Amino acid sequence: MTSGVDLGRPHTQTVGSDEDVVRVRQLVRTVAVAAKLSLVDQTKVVTAASELARNTLVYAGGGTVEVSIVDNGRRQGIRILFADSGPGIADLELALTDGYTTGGGLGLGLSGARRLVDEFDIRTAPGQGTRITITKWSR
Amino acid sequence: MALSADESGRLAVLLSSHVDQITQRWAEVVAGQLHGRLSQAELIRQVQELHRALVDALDKGAADLASEESVELRAVLAELSRGQAREGFSATETASGVFALKDALLTVMEADHNADKLRDFVAFSALIDQMGLFTFESYVRTRESLIADQAEQLLELSTPVVKLWEGVVAVPLVGTLDSARAQVVMERLLQTLVETSSPYAIIDITGVPAVDTQVAQHILKTVVAARLMGADCIISGIRPQIAQTIVALGIEFGDIATKASLADALRHVLRLTGVETSRRQPRREL
């Protein structure tokens, strides 16, 4: 992961219901606007956050989302951490395959979210929960 | 803190022997707080009703608000707070209306030379505090049910199905498309398709801020359901940023027709049905 300096303090949102997923979207949009992302990039990062927040809710029963503005010296960006203490992902490669789902969705959430952002870091193991960090830089 | 039988008796006597003085002072204090937002007659009526219920409860020997004897009083308080909540008074204003009774009581008790008056007043105060808190709770409950009602109404309001043309209906989606709303939209659309026997439906997503896989799945299911009923769906209102996001996500709409705007979608349908449409050149005005 590229190092970045946080600007301001990060905002946290717990995810425990569908309404919280909407709150995450709104929070991410606000911060993305503050980080001066273009409209397309705002929409992309909001959509990625929506997917990952819903995954947290559906597969782990809830978790927390932390949103912050980062700066690598040249560009500003938005970094979002999704953390849960759910069952974790046993086969990461399979989970990242387009169309694979165990939850009745389209099976594009995790893989699609990875394509929507610039940096995608996932740490997970069975029984250890899941931590996903995504970053989107302004152009 | 519960009132002793003695204390409730004394309070009942005190309240009923100074009816006019107490209700008048009480109404005065409340009127001062509400700044004329409630008519004087209405205010007096409320205060008198509350006064009557309170005296009734105390006559029966009510020790506190939770007791069996206070059931009538609780009903009056709940009714009062419901009314205030619906008319837009704040929770503080509603509870203060009850607390104002203390002021009125103090006025009559000051004139009364009884050795136990401080002790009595503290005991009465505790009862009035209970009453105030009770109104506060009723108020909050009413507000919560109002909010729930509004959320439901909003759900209904925000999913209209409109007839655009003979045989063409449209659903303009606005806001977040969660599972509950998707369900309402699908039901409405299918119902309208039957009622109007329309072969075409346009789902317009101009007002949907983000299309993620869940939203896409809801739309796809609606389209499939409409197709099963013999209607063709067109998705319109796909803005550039949404189109790029959908591509990156990997969502495929298959053979479903998609258009950038509602106008394009309507033109597309009309062409399919053979209705003549001419794309008029915009008139130049110099």
Automatic annotation (TrEMBL), chain A:
<dbReference type="InterPro" id="IPR003594">
    <property type="entry name" value="HATPase_dom"/>
</dbReference>
<protein>
    <submittedName>
        <fullName>Anti-sigma regulatory factor</fullName>
    </submittedName>
</protein>
<feature type="domain" description="Histidine kinase/HSP90-like ATPase">
    <location>
        <begin position="40"/>
        <end position="139"/>
    </location>
</feature>
<dbReference type="Pfam" id="PF02518">
    <property type="entry name" value="HATPase_c"/>
</dbReference>
<dbReference type="InterPro" id="IPR036890">
    <property type="entry name" value="HATPase_C_sf"/>
</dbReference>
TrEMBL record, chain B:
<dbReference type="InterPro" id="IPR002645">
    <property type="entry name" value="STAS_dom"/>
</dbReference>
<dbReference type="InterPro" id="IPR025751">
    <property type="entry name" value="RsbRD_N_dom"/>
</dbReference>
<dbReference type="InterPro" id="IPR036513">
    <property type="entry name" value="STAS_dom_sf"/>
</dbReference>
<dbReference type="InterPro" id="IPR051932">
    <property type="entry name" value="Bact_StressResp_Reg"/>
</dbReference>
<dbReference type="Pfam" id="PF01740">
    <property type="entry name" value="STAS"/>
</dbReference>
<keyword id="KW-0597">Phosphoprotein</keyword>
<feature type="domain" description="STAS">
    <location>
        <begin position="158"/>
        <end position="269"/>
    </location>
</feature>
<dbReference type="Pfam" id="PF14361">
    <property type="entry name" value="RsbRD_N"/>
</dbReference>
<protein>
    <submittedName>
        <fullName>Polyvinylalcohol dehydrogenase</fullName>
    </submittedName>
</protein>
